[in-house]
Amino acid sequence: MKLYHGATRDNASQILADGFQDLTSNFGLFNAVTGDPVNTTGVFFSNVVLDENEGVSSETYFVLNIPDIELTNYEWFEEGKGYREWCVPADLANLYLVDRTVYSWEELQMNSESDRRNPIGQAENILWPSDSFYQSSSDTGDVAGQERLSVRELVCQLYKESIAVDPGEFLGLLDVDDLVAFNHQSEQIMHWLTATRELIRIEKQ
Description:
This protein is an alpha+beta fold and 205 residues long. It has 7 helices and 8 strands. The protein has helices spanning 9-18, 68-71, 90-95, 105-117, 151-164, 167-172, 176-204; strands spanning 2-7, 23-25, 40-46, 60-65, 75-76, 85-88, 141-143, 146-148.
């Protein structure tokens, strides 16, 4: 599920440097009977971009995609609200801090309009990698008595292993430091691919 977290510019810089940090607050949550604030600890997320209309004043936003199964125990249920809310542990949120882009409210509104024009399911509009994308300098071979897999085979193997176990269990098998490093490397690769694609587009004009 796509979730949004609003922050000030200073807090956004801190998140980029150190990741999300747990905060104890009522986050606007009150006891329906007594009216007393209900404190909880974690990081606040919603499934929509909150602004002044919901009593929230954020200068920047982060966007995370967290599997529904990971969110089951952290959702708040309040009557009368037209959106959903979660208070997620910082450790869990940091696992999915893959998109380190800091968005403005205007940028997210533009993205929302684009999503409505290109709904999920229009697979013909998605540029999937061709087979050549997976080709390495050499095919599967034997190195020092151990089988060497092609990039494509590694991707397929990782996919099969990831769906064979419970998502929480699979994440538990991963080293957090390795995952953070992988996310950083993936981001660099995506930036390179985007820049390369743009150069190709310009040359074709």
